[in-house]
Amino acid sequence: MHLIKPETPALGAAVERLYDDVFGPARFHKASYLYREGIEAVPELSWVALEEDRLVGAIRYWPILVGEAGRQALLLGPLAIATDRAGRGIGRSLVFQTLEIAQRLGHDLVLLVGDVDYYQRFGFVPAVPHGFSMPGETKPDRLQVAPLRAGVLGKVTGEIRHMHSALPAIAAKRTRRAQRAQAR
Fold first, then answer.
1. Judging by beta carbons within 10 Å of its beta carbon (0-12, 13-18, 19+), is residue 54 exposed, middle or buried?
2. Interval 32-82: pLDDT, tens
3. What is the CATH number of the domain that holds 47?
4. Which residues constitute the domain of residue 22?
5. Based on the structure, what is the number of domains in the chain?
6. How many contiguous H segments (helices) and E segments (strands) does the chain have?
7. 10-42, pLDDT tens digit by residue?
């Protein structure tokens, strides 16, 4: 049996180790990680799963902007489950719990990059047909969206943008690199 609870600062290092174990260092090279650079995960939506004090699952959400108008939304991910605990409903518990909390907190749109077959049970659908794009994402068919309020899809569209710059994250990273180079 697993216990689902909010992530605490004391668990931060263990969560990062779990992400490393599940996804490896290549996770930092994915386009979705550019949107997390330089910002903190939403604390109310950072949750973990424990089994007898062992961390076996973790999920985080990040604030993002969508489209030219800069509509606020959430980027889910990563969701990680210890490989020896996969298929036991831990991920399902974490996603359902946190989506419910996100809705109660007033969020109305969540995007992610992930397996379409896995996330459809939570209300996610392919995002590209609904007018969303993630600059830099090499597999746009894995970009998905879930509305947390009726009528949101169709009203919000556009490129996902980084919270700090309101630029697509790939452009924001190039801008930060250029600024660092000029400072030298």
1. exposed
2. 888 898 899 999 999 999 999 899 999 999 999 999 889 999 999 999 999
3. 3.40.630.30
4. 3-183
5. 1
6. 5, 9
7. 999 999 999 999 998 888 888 888 889 889 999
